[in-house]
Specification:
By secondary structure, the chain is mostly helical. The protein is built from 10 helices and no strands. Bound molecules: zinc ion (2 copies).
């Protein structure tokens, strides 16, 4: 039985997604289908924000994140590592903690310095790190949602370019945009005041959150018509 627990790391969550959804993903979904699902469920999450429906938002952003990790699995990208290298307990742009991009009107991306001793170990610790870096009080929930939408757009664009060119520089951009997506997802959960690991472990306590099998045995048509 595959499960998410209170001390699960991002890497372990990614491995969990592979164990549970790797097989149906390989059989039913190509990369563009999966990208479509990342965006499809994220946009339902946005509707949850607009309607002030915390549960709808949380549920859909979690489903979106699982599709996102499926893409990372197919690309063999360690998203925890990429996230850490881009956000090593400092803002990826101003290289400060907390971020001072707004106050100081930082115009050029600063070089981040990685101190491995500060590296968060669990999903909880990553969420806490992002709360310190980007205070939820400094933005509205709607702004956090719009920022996530922006980053999903940039991620999709980088995927589109990479899939067309198969070029190493474009692949590098995909990994950077992936880290930005994780940062903004954490930002949305922080703005929603949702404890991500609690929500994940409530859903993924036993394999697939719907059929409870590993590999997941939800049918293609069930997934395409899934209501959330
Ligand atoms: Zn900053
Ligand atoms: Zn299932």
């Amino acid at each position: 039985m595959a499960s998410i627990k209170s001390d699960t790391s991002i890497k372990e969550y990614q491995d969990f997604i592979q164990e549970v959804y790797g097989l149906p993903n390989d059989r039913y979904f190509d990369m563009s289908n999966m990208l479509n699902n990342v965006n499809r469920f994220a946009m339902r999450g946005m509707k949850g924000i607009r309607k002030n429906d915390k549960e709808k938002a949380t549920n859909n952003f979690i489903i979106s994140s699982s599709w996102f990790l499926s893409i990372m699995n197919q690309l063999h990208v360690d998203v925890e590592q990429e996230t850490w290298e881009r956000f090593p307990f400092m803002c990826s742009y101003c290289a400060s903690c907390p971020c001072v991009c707004k106050e100081k009107k930082v115009e050029k991306r600063q070089k981040v310095i990685i101190d491995e001793t500060k590296r968060p170990k669990t999903i909880q610790e990553f969420q806490d790190m992002f709360r310190v870096l980007y205070h939820p009080e400094g933005r509205t929930l709607a702004d956090a949602g719009i920022h996530l939408a922006e980053e999903l757009g940039e991620f999709s664009e980088s995927m589109f370019k990479y899939r067309g060119s198969h070029n190493a520089d474009e692949f590098q951009k995909v990994t950077l945009e992936a880290a930005d997506v994780i940062s903004c997802l954490m930002g949305v959960f922080n703005s929603l005041d949702v404890n991500l690991i609690e929500e994940l472990s409530e859903r993924f306590y036993n394999n697939c959150h719907v059929c409870h099998k590993a590999p997941c045995s939800c049918s293609f048509i069930f997934v395409t018509e899934f209501k959330s």
